[in-house]
């Protein structure tokens, strides 16, 4: 192992992209009007319109939890229900924030393989959600995660299928894009082609995991749905007085395609990691690595030794399954060092 073992616990462990740091430094060097009335916030919305090839409304916020919860509050009334996967951030990682910000809406869980909602199961769940009329919560929205917590990416056809069900039942479609850049690079399509052109109404555009310090944007492709979002953001505590420090991060992230270069680097190292683990005996890939998350299975004694080396990752069960998240800053040397350690510990365990 190297003197600095790799940290695969999360892409949140990485620092900030140089472009982001430069943009924040610029914003910190001058004065500007507060609450988003500044050049950086204006420039971010312009950049996003160019990126997504359409008119849109973008609202910077500081966290992914706020982005998802506030976005869903704009789509679902307090007495409604949002359909999402059991592994979704909305269900597992937001500490009840969607329920809180919607004022009491319900999350209805719809399963599917590899962390993706099954469109047929969604259709059935929506159709049977309200058998007793006013006594049941009406369907209001569908939420999908791109890339999801299983490390899987919805294909364009899969997004089409979810969108078709949502439209047929007159529900809004929300996309949690905490790792949107990683998914986009994996799909090899344009941002527009995987969002509004396929029926996505609202995108939570993640930057924090991709190289920002703390910055996300809630993007509405339908002006009507964004009508009161400014007030929702303010009431939720995410209209920062010095909003330029959030917006400048997004501005740097989007400048000169820094966000896409970072995602390509992360995905490439994840592919290298997955290929390396697949080639090692007594090491098994749990599922294909679509983007920057790898699930693998190793014997628990080997995992104990890796942790003793200082390598960081999350155990995803008692059977030796682990989750390895590759950040934009992960290097080939980090990956190769980890693979060398795995081989060494497997050899020791076989003696």
Structural summary, described in words:
α1 runs antiparallel to α10 and α12 crosses α13. The two termini are about 20 Å apart. A hairpin with a 5-residue loop joins β10 and β11. The strands form two sheets. The protein has a seven-stranded mixed β-sheet, with helices on both faces. A four-stranded antiparallel β-sheet has the order 8-9-11-10, with helices on one face. With about 350 residues, the protein is α/β, with parallel strands linked by helices. It is built from 13 helices and eleven strands. The protein folds into two domains: about 240 residues, 3-Layer(aba) Sandwich (Aspartate Aminotransferase, domain 2); about 90 residues, Aspartate Aminotransferase, domain 1, CATH 3.90.1150. The longest helix is centred in the last third of the chain and has 21 residues.
Write the layout of secondary structure elements.
Layout: H1 18-28, H2 39-52, E1 57-61, H3 64-75, E2 81-84, H4 89-92, H5 97-102, E3 106-109, H6 119-127, E4 139-145, H7 156-168, E5 172-177, H8 180-187, E6 202-206, E7 216-220, H9 229-235, H10 244-254, H11 258-278, E8 284-285, E9 293-297, H12 300-309, E10 314-315, E11 321-325, H13 332-350
Parallel strand pairs: 2-3, 2-4, 4-5, 5-6
Antiparallel strand pairs: 1-7, 6-7, 8-9, 9-11, 10-11
Helix pairs in contact: 1-10, 2-10, 6-7, 8-11, 11-13, 12-13
């Amino acid at each position: 192992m190297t003197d600095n073992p790799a940290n695969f616990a999360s892409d949140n462990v990485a620092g900030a992209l140089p472009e982001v740091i430069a943009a924040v430094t610029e914003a910190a060097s001058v004065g500007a009007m507060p609450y988003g009335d500044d050049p950086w916030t204006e420039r971010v919305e312009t950049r996003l319109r160019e990126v997504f090839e359409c008119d849109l409304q973008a609202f910077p916020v500081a966290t992914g939890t706020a982005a998802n919860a506030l976005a869903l509050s704009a789509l679902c009334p307090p007495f409604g229900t949002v359909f999402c996967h059991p592994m979704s951030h909305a269900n597992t990682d937001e500490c009840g924030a969607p329920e809180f910000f919607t004022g009491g809406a319900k999350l209805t869980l719809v399963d599917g393989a590899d962390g993706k909602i099954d469109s047929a199961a969604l259709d059935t769940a929506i159709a049977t959600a309200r058998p007793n009329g006013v006594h049941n919560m009406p369907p209001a929205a569908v939420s999908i995660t791109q890339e999801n917590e299983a490390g899987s990416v919805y294909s364009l056809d899969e997004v089409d299928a979810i969108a078709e069900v949502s439209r047929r039942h007159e529900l809004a479609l929300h996309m949690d894009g905490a790792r949107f850049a990683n998914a986009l690079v994996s799909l090899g399509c344009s941002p527009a082609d995987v969002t509004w052109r396929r029926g996505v109404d609202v995108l939570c555009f993640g930057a924090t995991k991709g190289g920002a310090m703390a910055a996300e944007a809630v993007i509405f492709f339908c002006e009507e749905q964004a009508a009161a979002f400014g007030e929702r953001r303010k009431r939720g505590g995410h209209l920062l007085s010095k909003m330029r420090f959030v917006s400048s991060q997004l501005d740097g992230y989007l400048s000169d395609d820094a966000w896409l270069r970072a995602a390509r680097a992360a995905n490439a190292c994840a592919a290298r990691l997955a290929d390396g683990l697949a080639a090692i005996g007594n090491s098994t890939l749990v599922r294909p690595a679509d983007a920057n998350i790898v699930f693998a299975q190793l014997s628990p004694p080997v995992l104990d030794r890796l942790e003793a080396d200082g390598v960081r990752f999350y155990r995803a069960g008692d059977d030796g399954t682990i989750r390895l998240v590759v950040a934009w800053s992960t290097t080939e040397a980090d990956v190769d060092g980890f693979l060398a350690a795995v081989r060494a510990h497997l050899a020791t365990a076989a003696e």
